[in-house]
Design goal:
single chain; TIM Barrel; 2 domains; 8-stranded parallel beta sheet; 12 helices; 8 strands
């Protein structure tokens, strides 16, 4: 049986007829806060991307450390020194424990201790924008990745995806200016994954492109190590069950985007328990063992939509990075108050969309619709980068 050839114009004519419009693109266009062009549909991609590899063959599913944790947990997030573990991957997050760490046998250790000062305070300690004393100590330790660049703070403070990616690159450049290009294979990026499913997949992929492009400028071909955790920004005190759904989608987008390790923050913002921590972790187990999405090298590759988003994010973030360099770099922008103001303005725009119902949070501003109790001015500061949850306005 032979089917007639159907052109793109044929499809457009049919859709226009069904939607009773002559302006298909304007009708289906959906505004976003990222300044990204999103088409109503895609039939091709302008510049196909090669598969974007990750460092780990299989994404680590990270659990909060507990003495009672299941023996089948192979990766843990620890805030205190842990001992007597074997064949585990351990991510440490607290600087005050460095003096007490013991590196045992066949475990793999990673540092999630952010050495950067995100307050923009010039001092001997932070003369490079980061603590060189802390850096030197951690580089000397047997971490597989010892230098953490944390941009989760910026996401939770309201920074756009373009700003987050540009900041990641600007921080990377600050480090290479002091330690040289060999520091690149010691870096681990900590990112927070928000609720814009396909945008967040593209964010992870764009970070890979940006880091690899920057490393090539230095004569290397490095792949970034990415630790992704669920965002706190779209979570609510009053609606834990919806928090769980949101964080499941966030973990999914991180895995599909190609993160090397994923961690789900406790979906209960208050009254957390061992059970809620276990449930939060087992979201990852379900996704990994039921959907098997943690083993693909680049599951988003070949999707016209995701490819186009990835390219746009990478290009816009590179331009933001160049703007940072024009101002003297990441730390200098902080010192001048420029970066705080940019993130503040983006966070305010985003919060207004929540207040107006253009960003929908079920159980907060939709089903039921709670009353506004705080103004955006009460929640955000133009002088400080600080985490703010959308739902705080209603709590």
């Amino acid at each position: 049986m032979t089917f007639p050839n159907t052109s793109l114009q044929d499809w457009e004519n049919l859709v226009q007829k069904q939607l009773k419009t002559d302006d298909l693109y304007n009708l289906l266009n959906k505004e976003n806060l990222e300044g990204i062009t999103v088409k109503p549909y895609y039939d091709s991609v302008e510049k196909p991307l090669a598969a974007l590899p990750k460092v780990e063959e299989s994404t680590h599913l990270v659990s909060e450390f507990s003495s009672e944790m299941d023996e089948n947990v192979f990766a843990v997030l620890a805030h205190d020194p842990v001992h007597s573990l074997s064949e585990k991957t351990i991510f440490y997050s607290a600087e005050n424990i460095l003096d007490d760490l013991i590196f045992e046998g066949d475990n793999n250790y990673f540092s999630l201790i952010d050495v950067f000062n995100d307050l923009g305070e010039h001092s001997e300690t932070y003369q490079y924008g980061f603590s060189k004393v802390t850096m030197d100590v951690m580089i000397a330790m047997p971490f597989k990745r010892s230098v953490c660049i944390d941009i989760s703070l910026h996401q939770n403070a309201g920074a756009s995806i373009v700003q987050q990616l540009g900041i990641a690159l600007a921080k990377t450049k600050e480090l290479t200016e002091v330690y040289g290009k060999d520091i690149l294979n010691k870096i681990i990026f900590k990112v927070a994954v928000g609720g814009q499913y396909f945008f967040e997949i593209a964010k992870i992929r764009a970070l890979k492109i940006l880091f690899n492009t920057y490393s090539k400028e230095l004569g290397l071909n490095e792949i970034p190590y990415i630790f992704a955790e669920t965002s706190l920004r779209n979570k609510s005190l009053n609606d834990a069950e919806n928090n769980l759904i949101r964080s499941t989608l966030e973990i999914s987008s991180a895995m599909i985007g190609g993160a090397d390790a994923v961690f789900a923050n406790d979906y209960k913002m208050c009254e957390q328990s061992e059970l809620s921590a276990e449930i939060s972790y087992k979201q990852q187990i379900v996704l990994a063992y039921e959907s098997i999405i943690n083993v693909f090298e680049d599951a988003g590759n070949g999707s016209y939509f995701v490819e186009d988003l990835t390219r746009q994010f990478a290009e816009k973030a590179w331009q933001f990075f160049l703007e940072c360099e024009t101002e003297g770099g990441y730390f200098e922008m902080l010192n001048k108050g420029i970066l705080q103001k940019k993130i503040y303005e983006q966070g305010i725009r985003e919060q207004k969309w929540v207040e107006e119902g253009r960003i929908k949070l079920i159980g907060v501003n939709l089903y039921p619709k709670l009353e506004v109790r705080k103004s955006t001015e009460d929640m955000y500061s133009p002088n400080k980068i600080q985490p703010v949850r959308w739902a705080e306005m209603f709590e």
